[in-house]
C-alpha cells in the first residue's frame, strides 16, 4: 500500500568519520565559540556522533572580524592545548578561514594573506543582503593565484533564489558549492530549505559542512531527519568532503 509518509533517518547517524570543513569552533575570534570551554563543549558533542576532525573557518571580514594568520594561529593553539589537557587525543583541528568577499578581500589576496584550506581551496562568502559588487572579479583573481574557490552556503543567499541560473553560471566559472547541513531543515527558513534541496537535486553541490557556531545550532543539527531520496544524494557529498580534505 502506498504511503504518503516516507521513512526518515537522522542525518547525524551518517556522519561518523566526517570531516567538518566549515565551522566556528575556534574560541574568541568571531561570532562562534566565545571561550575555549565553549569550543571543547562543541567538540565533545560532535564526537558523540563520530565527528572528530575539523577544519575551523573563522570569519575574515573587514571592519567586523579582521582576523589574520596570527589571530587564527593563536586561537587554534589555545584550543589544541586545551584538547591535550582534556585528553581528547582523537580530535584533530586545523584552521583556515571563511573570507567575506568585500573591499578588502582582493587586497589580502594580492598580499598572500588569505587562509586557504589544504589543497589550496579558499572558502568565500557574500552578504546575505546583496551580492558582492566585486564578486566576479574576485573569483577570477582567486583562480589567477591558483586557488580553488568554494562558495559557502549558496542556498542562503536569498537574492539568488529567484535567479537560479546564476548558480549554474557560478559553476561554469569554476566555483564549488558547500552546503550547510542545517539548510536541509527549516532552521534558516523554508526558502533556504527549498533552495538547498533544489541544488541537491540538480547535482550542483560539491561539499557539505556544519557552519556550527554554538550549541543551539548543533542541537538543531542533531534533530535533522532526511528521506532515503535525500540521503542517496547527500552521502556522496559527505564522502567527497572526506576524500578531499583528509
Largest sheet: 6 strands, parallel
* Class inferred from helices and paired strands: alpha/beta
Low-confidence segments: none
Query: Helix amount, in percent?
Result: 25-40%
CATH topology: TIM Barrel
Number of domains: 1
Question: How would you portray this structure in words?
Answer:
This protein has eight helices and eleven strands. It is of the alpha/beta class. It has a single domain (8-245), classed as Alpha-Beta Barrel (TIM Barrel). It has a six-stranded parallel β-sheet. Strands 2-3-5 form a three-stranded parallel β-sheet, with helices on both faces. Strand 9 (176-180), helix 6 and strand 10 (207-209) form a beta-alpha-beta unit. The model has no long low-confidence stretch (mean pLDDT 96).
Topology:
Blueprint: E1 8-10, E2 19-20, H1 36-48, E3 53-56, E4 59-60, H2 69-85, E5 92-95, E6 98-100, H3 105-111, E7 121-125, H4 135-144, E8 148-152, H5 165-172, E9 176-180, H6 190-201, E10 207-209, H7 215-223, E11 225-227, H8 228-245
Parallel strand pairs: 2-3, 3-5, 4-6, 6-7, 7-8, 8-9, 9-10
Antiparallel strand pairs: 1-11
Give the structure's gist in a few sentences.
This protein has helices spanning 36-48, 69-85, 105-111, 135-144, 165-172, 190-201, 215-223, 228-245, and strands spanning 8-10, 19-20, 53-56, 59-60, 92-95, 98-100, 121-125, 148-152, 176-180, 207-209, 225-227.
List its traits.
single chain; 246 residues; alpha/beta; TIM Barrel; six-stranded parallel beta sheet; three-stranded parallel beta sheet; 8 helices; 11 strands; 38% helix; 16% strand
Amino acid at each position: 500500500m502506498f504511503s504518503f509518509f516516507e521513512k526518515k533517518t537522522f542525518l547525524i547517524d551518517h556522519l561518523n568519520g566526517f570531516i567538518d570543513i566549515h565551522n566556528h569552533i575556534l574560541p574568541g575570534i568571531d561570532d562562534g565559540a566565545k571561550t575555549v570551554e565553549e569550543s571543547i563543549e562543541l567538540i565533545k558533542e560532535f564526537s558523540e556522533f563520530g565527528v572528530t576532525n575539523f577544519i575551523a573557518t573563522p570569519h575574515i571580514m573587514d571592519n567586523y572580524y579582521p582576523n589574520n594568520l596570527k589571530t587564527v594561529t593563536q586561537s587554534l593553539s589555545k584550543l589544541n592545548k586545551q584538547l591535550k589537557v582534556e585528553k581528547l587525543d582523537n580530535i584533530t583541528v586545523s584552521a583556515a578561514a571563511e573570507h567575506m568577499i568585500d573591499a578588502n578581500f582582493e587586497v589580502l589576496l594580492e598580499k598572500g594573506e588569505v587562509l586557504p584550506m589544504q589543497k589550496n581551496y579558499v572558502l568565500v562568502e557574500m552578504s546575505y543582503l546583496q551580492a558582492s559588487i566585486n564578486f566576479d572579479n574576485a573569483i577570477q583573481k582567486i583562480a589567477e593565484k591558483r586557488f580553488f574557490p568554494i562558495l559557502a552556503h549558496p542556498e542562503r543567499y536569498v537574492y539568488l533564489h529567484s535567479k537560479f541560473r546564476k548558480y549554474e553560471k557560478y559553476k561554469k566559472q569554476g566555483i564549488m558549492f558547500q552546503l550547510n547541513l542545517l539548510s536541509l531543515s527549516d532552521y534558516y527558513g523554508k526558502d533556504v530549505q527549498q533552495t538547498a534541496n533544489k541544488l541537491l537535486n540538480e547535482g550542483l553541490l560539491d561539499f557539505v559542512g556544519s557552519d556550527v557556531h554554538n550549541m543551539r545550532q548543533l542541537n538543531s543539527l542533531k534533530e535533522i531527519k532526511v528521506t532515503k531520496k535525500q540521503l542517496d544524494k547527500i552521502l556522496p557529498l559527505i564522502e567527497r568532503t572526506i576524500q578531499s580534505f583528509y
